[in-house]
Fold this protein.
Amino acid sequence: HVQLVESGGGSVQAGGSLTLSCAASGYTFTSCMGWFRQAPGKEREAVAGIDSVGTGKTADSVRGRFTISKDNARNTLLLQMNSLTPEDTTMYYCALRRAWGRYVTFGPDDYDYWGQGTQVTV
């Protein structure tokens, strides 16, 4: 079965950087994948996504600071986060969409599998 395990979260000072990783297993690594974040009492927010051919897209709220990428050799999804601010503090989740597609979707309902999340505190 599909398993997604996030890592790399932690505490960092404002202006600092973190790299989140999502180790994926149990599927063919050509699905669309994404990073979301969700604060308590708020809706899940898309951060970045990457399509089946490796084209990435970031949300307006983090564009220019966050970069999404895939390491196909290690079946790992990455999120490089720079210039972090206190507003970036929350839980971050990795997600996978089974359908192959040459587009990025930011709708949480479009994703089929989710990791347990990793906490980022700025």
